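User: Structure please.
Assistant: Input sequence and predicted structure:
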Amino acid sequence: MRFIIGFLSGVLGALAGWFGLAMLVIALAGHDQDGGIAMGAFFNIGPFGGIAGFIAGVVLFLKFGQARAVSPAADAAQPQPAAAAAPVRTRVSRPFAIVVVAILAGLGWWGWYELIRSPYLSHGFMTLDMQFRLPAGMDLPPDPSKVRITVEEGGQYLEPGLGPSWHGTDEGRRVILAHVTLSMKTGRRSVTLALPGVAEQSWPLGLSSDPDPMPGFTDWKLADGKPSPAIEMNYKLTAER
């Protein structure tokens, strides 16, 4: 047991030293345009911190992770010589072992969540097809570059492509067609549309964090707050594989 806890303490120290040294180098280096500094800090410099951290973790175990207790005499009824030293027994410190195992268990769960339960969608990249139906009598912008659509997915902002056939007609009303690729598991998704001379309008997407493909388009929905003019949106989600 002492060997196992000592080794785990060293592993925890190695992880702390590796990531700590890498993050220190990145912080001191400042802004990194292409990620080269971060990669070098993690893979080239970080291992030295890992070695130092492993040694530090083992030393900490030897100093704080062991408790000593005096063993009782083999026969308390028998008098012991005055010069005889009581035998000393060493055991693993329970609080130290609990802390080490708990931290490693937490890190292991986080690693499992990030690597095994990938942050990317289970169906791979998925296409979100969107349709924006303008009010009756409202014309399309003369140039598709004047249409600004933004999709928020978990804190990142995507700009959908309009393509050559970027508009259509539904029940005599003009419709803007757009699509974008979704990839991340997140409960935060919304769509924003801005047109020339029209107030920006936004729609939350009622999708789960890891959605399945949809058989068809949703019902038409007004933007939050129901602004004027009342532009409606619907959407469909399909898997790309």
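The two ends are 49 Å apart (CA to CA).
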